């Protein structure tokens, strides 16, 4: 249960960070701030894309063991 909670918290934090960067990249008044937000967002998206398993469609990432230790089919 602790791993699931930790995973949910980290996923939520990732979403908040990406949303904040996207809004900053779009609506910031200073060009330098927009540029920095865009470059940071690009790095985060590249890391997320690198975690994808080749051959799987987008939206389906790695499938590890479930909480009871068995591997999903």
Find the structural class using helix and strand composition: mainly alpha
- Report on the biggest sheet: none
Shape: flat
The fraction of residues in strands falls at under 5%
Instruction: Return Rg in Å.
Output: 16 Å
Q: Helical proportion?
A: 55-70%
Q: Which sequence of SSEs, written as H and E, runs from N to C? A: HH
Q: Give the distance, in angstroms, between the N- and C-terminal Cα atoms.
A: 21 Å
Instruction: Catalogue the unreliable spans.
Output: none
Instruction: Please give the number of β-strands.
Output: 0
Average residue pLDDT: 78
Number of helices: 2
Q: Can you tell me about this structure?
A:
The structure is a single chain. This protein is mostly helical. It has two helices and no strands. It has helices at residues 2-27, 31-50. It is flat. The protein starts with a helix and ends in a 23-residue tail after the last helix. The model has no long low-confidence stretch (mean pLDDT 78).
Write the layout of secondary structure elements.
Blueprint: H1 2-27, H2 31-50
Helix pairs in contact: 1-2
């Amino acid at each position: 249960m602790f791993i699931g909670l930790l995973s949910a918290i980290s996923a939520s934090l990732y979403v908040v960070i990406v949303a904040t960067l996207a809004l900053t990249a779009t609506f910031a008044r200073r060009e330098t701030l927009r540029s920095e937000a865009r470059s940071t967002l690009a790095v985060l998206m590249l890391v997320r894309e690198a975690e994808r398993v080749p051959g799987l469609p987008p939206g389906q990432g790695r499938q590890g063991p479930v909480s009871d230790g068995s591997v999903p089919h």
